[in-house]
Amino acid sequence: MSYQLNWDMDSVFTGGSQSSELRTKIETLKEQIEQFHQTVELWDPEVDRLNYNHLKEVLNLSEKIGNSLSEAMTFSRGLLSANVRDKNAAKLTNELSTLYSSLSNSTTVLTKKYVGIDDADWADLLEIEPFNASAFPLNEQREQGKKLLSQNEEAVINALTNDGFKGWGDLYNSLVATVQVDFENKDGKVNSYSAGQAANLMGSAKDPETRQKMLEKWELAWASKSSLFADTLNHLAGFRLENYKLHGTEDFMARPLEYNRLKKETLDIMWDTITKNKPKVVEYLNRKAQLMGIEKLSWVDVTAPVSVGDFEPRHYSYDEAAEFIMENFSSFSNQMQKLAKTAFEDSWIEAEDRDGKRPGGYCANLPESEQSRIFMTFSGSAGNVSTLAHELGHAFHSYVMRDLPVMNRRYAMNVAETASTFAELVISDATVREASSEAEKINLLDSKNARAATMFMNIHSRYLFETAFYEERKNGIVTDDRLSELMVDAQKEAYQDSLSTYHPTFWASKLHFYNTGVPFYNFPYTFGFLFSLGIYARSLEEGSGFEEKYIALLRDTASMTTEALAQKHLNVDLTQPDFWQSAIDMVHTDIDEYLELTAKYI
Q1: Is the pTM of this model over 0.85?
Q2: 375 three-state secondary structure
Q3: Taking the domains of the chain in order of start, what are their residue ranges?
Q4: If you average pLDDT over every residue of the chain, what do you get?
Q5: CATH number for the domain whose boundaries are 16-163
């Protein structure tokens, strides 16, 4: 079957960024948000305490508005991702952000009223339906409310966020759209590529020398605008730090941990266990360098495909990738396969390789439609297939939670990355098992091991960089040159000085550093990778009956802390090294097999 490379947005709202349907939706949202504000202002917990019927009305309206806003924002951001030059889409996205701020102001009022309810009455409230089903997120909201400033002060911060904090994030996206990377082809002709296209070309180049030349051009492109990116990053971090300070903390890790519902001791033990196991990963990197005929890998060699014998890396058509993913999903979960089939057949995915798209990939939910939309640039590499499976994992996570209250669907990034990484594992493990030759098996194992190296080292370098950057940012602006120094220092530490070259402007080219929604958008990936490895190991032990247990775990991801989730569904303690070591041992198994198979090729 042939699948469309472009997503269907007209089934959400017809007319693109000029959609009259969307305009009607936005005007309705404005009225509903005003109604919500008035309803919240009038709500008196003391009068309502008998059965809290008025609060039920408040939360029903909040849920309706939340679903509508998410639907509209996924649409507008999707249009802008697919065409960064769509000025109307940018304008719509900004308008919807303003509505989010208005809704947030009213939610602040509601939260402060929760705080005003005494503990005994609050406990009684949480015994009543439907509040009992959302006891965890309601308690979480009330606890966070205790740190809020006055209603007026919070309103001012929200008002300044759009053109301040979020404005800097928008500026980053606009700057990225102007980045052009000049690569020379085999005939000596120089072509100019967007950031997304250049990243794909660099990642799929076949020899180390070509990749290194491309990396140098890539560095030049980002360095040419480094002062602008440095200004942007400094102001984003500065806003965050001042906001944290206003709310009583100078610990810049407090909010990321709170957001991920994660204890600091859990994060620390994860990184500590990884660091103790890095020598095995360095062993893999050194072997890969030997296979490529070089002394040490460069930054871009780590994830580049390796070939032995007469093997050539496979190129997938989009249709082949779709069938490949669906077939392998079905080996674990019929529901995952069914969801993927719907996504391909109903054109949920924007995959075309063309100019004008933003770099990267993501999955966004459409709660009213009970669908998702996936954005990426597909050029046929095995890495692209993994990205596609990864994003479909996100879509599956949203799908299995579609009937839950909005509050019970707001899972954090660390557990969000669990579902997506699990989907990748299902694909990669099956392909290694079914390899038709030793050379193919080596290539596929290399891809798995490179993924682990990314999680243990690349992501760790991001975490180390951001930690150092935020610490220095407390004392003032950090220059672009200093940012590059911090970046290389972090990369050398994370990779244990095992590479020949590094990526000084990674702080500019990696969009995750500029995400305004999620602070420290790095460690959740590594957490999700190892957490999903642990879940995957459990699925192999338990066989076909594990699908329902997996879905039950996903449905609980916004209803308890991460540690409680692991204890309930896996019976493990995340604050101890045992679980992390058992997950890392699976990586060691892959590396050992890789070292054994490749020994005769060096």
Answers
A1: yes
A2: strand
A3: 16-163
A4: 95
A5: 1.20.140
